[in-house]
């Protein structure tokens, strides 16, 4: 097991008061006998560079867990990136190996773990994904990499979707990619990777008819009250996977990455699935 240089790991981003990752990770570290503790640090993009400089000087931090809106901005401060981070331009877990910072992204693999825990599979399924930010692009890459039949991505910034799909096509392996909802298209799994649902009164990212015709709904948002999307899914009797399931799917991957010398998200995901008895993802 890798010897971690510091005793503290920071989770940075904003808003951050509601996040459960630090508590879940701390339980894992305690169970494994690791003298590490995750603490929350509310941080926005303007203060990121200054904070990174302070961390470089301090030498008492073992790594970072990164959430909105810093997943893209943190990449400018990395010394090394996994191939997945190079593709996405976003990282959500940083390990400090001495003076070298290496960034990884476990959003997609955490999403897959949540979906599989709900008895669903990615391979051969047709997906409609709302949102192409740091989490959305990671989820999209995993959907494609796992052998989905089709993936449509929608976002208010259509240009960003077009550019990302261009990069994603080299991984498609027969997965049909699109950026617009067809007239009467039906999807096996809907995925909300937008912030919609975080605040009371937010609309759903999907029209009720799309939810009605879908097989299942995955929402990565963690909200204090049932979102419109959740209410629609329950009204139509659709399987609903909530945001906390994705968090739980990632924490073991964070732990393994932060306490070993691993440099591959996929390898860690396979090892974690095997250890849990779920069977290795594709």
Describe the structure concisely for a colleague.
By secondary structure, the chain is α/β, with parallel strands linked by helices. It is built from ten helices and twelve strands. The chain has two domains: 8-106 and 250-276, 3-Layer(aba) Sandwich (Rossmann fold); 108-244, NAD(P)-binding Rossmann-like Domain (Rossmann fold), CATH 3.40.50.720.
CA radius of gyration is 18 Å
Shape: globular
Q: What is the number of helical segments per DSSP (H or I, 4+ residues)?
A: 10
Summed over residues and divided by their number, the pLDDT gives a mean of 92
CATH class of the largest domain: Alpha Beta
What name goes with the CATH superfamily of the largest domain?
Answer: NAD(P)-binding Rossmann-like Domain
Helix content: 25-40%
Give the name of the CATH architecture of the largest domain: 3-Layer(aba) Sandwich
Structural commentary:
This protein is an alpha/beta fold and 282 residues long. The chain has 2 domains: 8-106 and 250-276, 3-Layer(aba) Sandwich (Rossmann fold); 108-244, NAD(P)-binding Rossmann-like Domain (Rossmann fold, 3-Layer(aba) Sandwich), CATH 3.40.50.720. The protein has 10 helices and 12 strands. It has helices at 21-32, 45-58, 83-88, 107-117, 134-145, 158-168, 208-213, 228-235, 243-259, 265-276; strands spanning 8-13, 37-42, 61-66, 80-81, 93-97, 100-104, 126-130, 150-154, 176-178, 189-192, 216-219, 239-241. The strands form 2 sheets. A 6-stranded mixed beta sheet has the order 2-1-3-5-6-4, with helices on both faces. The protein has a 6-stranded parallel beta sheet with strand order 9-8-7-10-11-12, with helices on both faces. Strand 8 (150-154), helix 6 and strand 9 form a beta-alpha-beta unit. Helix 4 (107-117) packs across helix 9 (243-259) and helix 9 packs across helix 10. The protein is globular and about 55 Å long. The protein starts with 7 loop residues before the first strand and ends in a 6-residue tail after the last helix. The mean pLDDT is 92.
